[in-house]
Each structure stands twice: as C-alpha cells, then as structure tokens.
Amino acid sequence: MEEGYLYYPGCTLKTKASDYEESAMAVMEALGKPLVEMDDWYCCGAVQSLTEDDIMHQIAPIRTMCCAQEQGEKEVVTLCDMCYNVLKQANERMKEKPDDLETMNEFLTEDPDYLGEVDVHHIFEILRDMKDEIKKKVKKPITDLKIAPYYGCMLLRPDHVAIDDTEDPHIMEGLLEAIGAEVIHNPKRTECCGSYHTVNRSDIVEKRVEDIVSRAVKDGADAIALSCPLCQFNLDFHQRNTEYDIPVFYLTELIALAMGIEVGMEKHKIDPKSLLKDKKILE
C-alpha cells in the first residue's frame, strides 16, 4: 500500500477504544501515511494459546493474515497491544515452523494457502520511525504536561515479539519528548495492570492499579500514556476505588493534540479535558 498502511482494528477499537482509533487515524492522516482498514478481518482470539501443539487457536489470527495476503499487502498495522501480540506470535510461528503452516493451510479449506509473507507491526513501531516527521507537525507542544509512560505486558513479552527492550523500553519516551511533554520516569511501566482479572477478580486489578497509579502520582505525573485498550480501561476505570484521579491517555491522543488536532476522548472515565484546559492545551 503505497500511500499508507493496511490496518487491522480488532474488536475493541470499534467499541470501548474508539477514541484510540480516531486519534491514531487522525495522526497517521496528518503524517501522510493513512491507516486503511482491511477489507475483511477476524477477531484475533484475544489471547495467545500457550500450548505448543494447539494449532486450532492459531486459525483466527492466520485467517486475518490470509485477508491481508488476498489484498496483495505484505504489512499489517495494529493499534491494540493484545491484537498485536496474538497476531505477531501466530504469524511468527507459521514462518518458523513449516509443518505448522502446512497443517494450518489444511484447516483453512475456504481460504487460499497462507504463504507466511505478511509482517505484523504495532503503531508505535511506525510512529518511532516517523519521529522526525512528527516533530515537524507539532503546532502546540504539550510542554506543561508531565507524562508517565506505561507499556504493560503485551508489547514487550515474550522477547521474540517485543517491539523494544523488554526491561528498559524507550519508544514512548522518545515520542513524548518529540511532542514537547515532560517525561516522568516510571519504574512501574512494564508491570501488569491485572489484565482480564478485571472480569472476575477485580480486587486483584484494583491493587495493581493503585500500585501503578500511586507511583506515577508520587513521581509528579499529571497523567499516564499508553496504547493497550485493556490497560487503559483498568487504569482509568479502577481508579474509582482509590484516592487518585489522573487521566489515562492513549499516546496518539497526545500526539494529535500536539499537532493541533482535537479528538473526542469521550470514552474516558476520568475526564482528561479539565487537565488539558488547566494546562491551556484546550480552550
């Protein structure tokens, strides 16, 4: 795709994380590399199977790779960290294990054989490589905002699909600095938010959230920036049972604001607009 990137949205970006999709698409449009949604796609399956001989649970992500292949594309970009992790792991497995790829193609009776030639990227990898272009597009540097980056688990684990150093990542820090934010070092930035325990063990998630958020506040952060919709929900929603109430932004929302693009941010539980108005970033 010469003008932009083939985009796999997954399920959450069309519902609870639509603010993320809106801001990411606006940023990429402004950079001249628009995200173009795939003609067809399937749910990634949400989690990667840890069972070595479980080929069946690789079908959903690989069917999406087949969709990209049918469109003649060699790259797919995701926004959701969970989708990235599942698609990337399944795809790399097919590339590294020809026998598994052969078995997979036997399962995909209604699809063309997958050739294993599509690559999966997270939006942060694209933005990292366009950091200089982002700097040139900044109209309103967010210099008064102190932001603690938060990566969570799925961008950095396991090692073979990590988009950055698993122990000391810097992609978000570099992008935040590019738009003028003051980056607060966050020693909790790679810790788990509690993930799907939010469904049936919210007490676990609340403890994790309080630990992560309290450290960011203690270190002087005005807000937290991330990219995972599940992390955003947990850190945003579960603050209600703590003494804290700092906004949790998708990084692309902050980049959009710095570019002078106002996006909705309507799905946030802790309203970020009051902070942005206090800092004169919004009118």
Key features?
4-stranded parallel sheet, Rossmann fold, 283 residues, 8 strands, alpha/beta, 41% helix, globular, 2 domains
Can you put this structure into words, describing what you see?
This protein is an alpha/beta fold and 283 residues long. The protein has two domains: 119 residues, Up-down Bundle (Glutathione S-transferase Yfyf (Class Pi), Chain A, domain 2), CATH 1.20.1050.140; 142 residues, Rossmann fold (3-Layer(aba) Sandwich). It is built from twelve helices and eight strands. The protein has a four-stranded parallel β-sheet with strand order 2-1-3-4. Strands 6-5-7-8 form a four-stranded parallel β-sheet, with helices on both faces. The protein is globular and about 60 Å long. The model has no long low-confidence stretch (mean pLDDT 95).
What's the structural blueprint in terms of helices and strands?
Elements: E1 5-8, H1 18-30, E2 35-37, H2 59-70, E3 75-78, H3 81-96, H4 98-107, E4 119-122, H5 123-129, H6 131-137, E5 146-149, H7 171-178, E6 182-183, H8 197-200, H9 202-218, E7 223-226, H10 229-237, E8 248-250, H11 251-258, H12 273-278
Briefly summarize what is shown:
Helices cover 41% and strands 10% of the residues.
| Share of residues in helices | 40-55%
Question: Largest beta sheet: what is the strand line-up?
Answer: 2-1-3-4
What is the third-level CATH name, the topology of the largest domain?
Answer: Rossmann fold
Number of domains: 2
